[in-house]
Design a protein that fits this description.
Elements lengths: L1 H5 L12 H20 L6 H22 L12
């Protein structure tokens, strides 16, 4: 089990593409971040990488979608 948990950082992915592709790539990042939060591991390279990927993915999506108004209804909550 320990080896499996040590490899969680390898599951992180930078979100990119259309809305559906973004969600596909966001999901592992969010669940890994939630796991680390639930277990009290709120710092470290994996947590920072997950947060960075999520934030950069949101910014990239909103920036690219803003050109055609497809992201105007997005509510960023975190």
């Amino acid at each position: 089990m320990g080896q499996s948990l040590d490899g969680l950082g390898n599951l992180l992915q930078m979100p990119y593409g259309c809305g559906e592709q973004n969600m596909l790539h966001f999901a592992p990042d969010v669940y890994i971040l939630k796991y680390f939060d639930a277990t009290g591991r709120t710092s470290g390279s994996v947590v920072e990488k997950a947060k960075r990927f999520i934030n950069e993915g949101i910014v990239e999506y909103v920036d690219s979608a803003a050109n055609d108004s497809s992201a105007r209804n997005i509510r960023i909550c975190c």
